Amino acid sequence: MNKWKNIKEKIFSSNELVAYIFMLPFLVCFLFFTVIPVFSSLGLSLTYFNVMEAPRWIGLENYMKLFLDDSLFVRALANTLVLSVVTGPVGFILCFSMAWIMNEFSPKVRAVLTLMLYVPSLGGAAGIWTIIFSGDRYGLLNSFLLSLELIDEPLQWLTDSTYMMGTAIAVILWGSLGTSFLSFVAGFQNMDTKLYEAAAIDGIRNRWQELWYITLPAMKPQMLFGAVMSITTSFGIGDVITGLFGYPTTDYALHTLVHHLSDYGGMRFEMGYASAIATILFAIMIIANEVVQKLLQKLGN
Amino acid sequence: MRKKEKSGVTLNRSTAGTAAMAIFIVCYAAVMVLPLILMISNSLKPLNELWIFPPKLLPTNPTLKNFKDMFIVMSNSTIPFTRYLMNTVVITVAGTVGNVIISSLCAYPLSKMKFKGRSIVFKTIVLALMFNGSVTAIPSYLVMTKLHLVDNLLAIILPAVSTPVGLYLMKQFMDSSIPDALLEAASIDGASQIQLFTTIVMPNVKPAWMTLILLSVQGLWNTGSSTLIFSENNKSFAYAIQQIGSAGISRAGVAAAASVVMMSVPVIVFVISQSQVLQTMATSGMKD
To answer: Are the Cβ atoms of A29 and B161 closer than 8 angstroms?
Structure first.
């Protein structure tokens, strides 16, 4: 008994060991479900692997096939880039500007507005959009536009590739005021108002100058975090599109990397090929994040 | 906690500007909620009102029939809907509780202790914020197969308890909400690290718990079909609801009712936790 107590004391008096024990449960889960998957994805992307047989080394063949032989991949890559280049920055700016505008109002009004703007990002409302964008005259948007005589016949928002990208972007932006938005709202709420008072004395004349010289630099940490959230989400777009347009979309007009990935990984069990797609998506996300972090760091310097 | 009172100094802001901003944000918020109102309104419309031309924003004869039908449809399926609901409740509760406890345990040393590897662990977590689950989905499936967790609810729960964003927010909040002096004083009085954690750290990071609860519930409650779960017995509520919706226009009202039910849970959690979530988010910033 005494011996056990001694051992126990020894262990818990060493802070370093305690730290590792505290972190252990998280790090084990993180290792199994994030770290190992990332590295095995890198490794498997260089093999042919169909789950039944052992992976066979084929070098860069998967990557060559993706870029040279798989036009659907190229389209998925293009769609993903277009979607994220539009919804990422626009979503980010929406989050920031809505939080900025809201900050002018009393805490109660702000709380209600936060709720109204944040709720769409909770997900689960894709069903209503299929009714709004329904392609017949009963579709809410079609019937509205018809009654205003802006269009002569119902438009196929969900199946005509001319409109599909626009429809998708609208719905994605509708749900884009999520975690980064909350981060900005909180950031503004906690800004030191003395900064503004000092600035007013120093000759800041209007709210634009205030925004540029004081708010933006003070909000930089929040913006760095918000940018990461927006970028990561925007490159991972896939489920929203499936919920709205079904899978596959007409003529693969909205086929994204996430779709291509789950097509090969989840349906065809070509794990090596799917891993190559995952690795490319991973690289794009990390590079985009690092570049944007560097750019935002420069802001206001 | 970190709130600062607005003082009386008038700032150089034009009234016209404030008015313009007020009008703009009210219109924007209205557009944002419109689809949600339509969803609620559709869930209350009898079938003959759902497909009239031109469509009406509000139901003329509101009814709860869609909600009743939803339960009838669900209880007529081969697997009783309570089974789907139970699966989702188990996933959500276990994942959320696990996430709060495991993330707090991990965040405490990262925030307050000195040990080798601290900065590399934190840097890895920040790096992990930069990609999402879609990237690791395929190899995760292989890992789950190796661990014999496929078709087990743990396959959904375990990855959900170790989210980088949860750990990150928890650690940032601990950094600024727990004074080092407080921990030092208690530790001089003879408190062990476990006592420090349970009596000082945990009670002080309640806002961050609420934030992790919100994020976890939001993610887990909406868990739909997954390649990791194949037997019907283990499928989720969101999956069951999706099946109703896909039955076509005759079920449009029921589908709307189902969406309302699905959305209400995260919305309620957000309403309850909003002010505490905002306290946490105030510390979410990334330092250079």
So the answer is: yes
Provide the chain B residues 128-187 that lie in CB contact (below 8 A) with chain A: 128-143, 147, 158-159, 161-162, 164-165, 167
Residue A230, in any domain of the structure? yes
pLDDT of residue A3: 67
pLDDT at B10: 52
Query: Looking at CA atoms only, how far is residue B80 from chain A in angstroms?
Result: 22
Q: How many CB atoms lie within 10 A of CB A187?
A: 28
* Chain A from 49 to 108: CB within 8 A of any B CB: 51, 98, 101-102, 104-105
Dihedrals φ, ψ of A57, to 5°? Answer: -65, 125
Q: What is the mean pLDDT of residues B76-88?
A: 83
Query: Within a 10 A sphere around the Cβ of B232, how many other Cβ atoms?
Result: 13
Of A58 and A191, the structure prediction assigns the larger pLDDT to: A58
ipTM: 0.90
**Is residue A60 a part of any domain in this protein?**
no
Q: How many CA atoms lie within 13 A of B212 on its CB side?
A: 32
Q: What is chain A's mean pLDDT, rounded? A: 88
Q: Could you tell me if residue A218 is inside a domain? A: yes
A19, two tokens: 């730290």
CATH number at residue A167: 1.10.3720.10
- Determine, for residues B4 and A265 on separate chains, whether the beta-carbon distance falls below 8 Å: no
pLDDT digits (tens, 9 = 90+) for B85-96: 899 999 999 999
How far apart (Å, rounded) are the C-alpha atoms in residues B172 and B187? 22
Amino acid identity, position A100: W
Which tokens go with A90? 């626009």
Domain chopping of chain B, boundaries: 30-63, 72-281
**Which of B 100-119 lie inside 8 A of A, CB atoms?**
102-103, 105-106, 108-110, 113-116, 118
pLDDT at position A170 over 80:
yes
Question: Given an 8 Å threshold on Cβ–Cβ distance, is B281 in contact with A185?
Answer: yes
Within 8 A by CB and 6+ apart from A149, the residues are none
Fold of B72-281: MetI-like fold (1.10.3720)
Contact state of B158 with A32 under an 8 Å Cβ cutoff: yes
**Which residues 193-252 in chain A show a CB within 8 A of chain B?**
193-194, 196-197, 200, 204-207, 210, 220-222, 224-225, 228-229, 231-233, 235-236, 238
Q: What is the mean pLDDT of residues A89-100?
A: 95
- How many independent structural domains does chain A possess? 1
What is the extent of the structural domain holding A213?
Answer: 65-298
Token pair 């009838």 is at which residue? B72
What is residue B248's predicted lDDT score, i.e. its pLDDT?
65
Mean pLDDT of B2-7: 40
Indicate the pTM of the whole model: 0.90
**Overall average pLDDT of the B110-130 stretch:** 93
A20 assigned to some structural domain = no
Residue-wise pLDDT tens digits, B37-63: 988 998 898 888 877 767 777 888 888
Cα(B179)–Cα(B201) distance, integer angstroms: 10
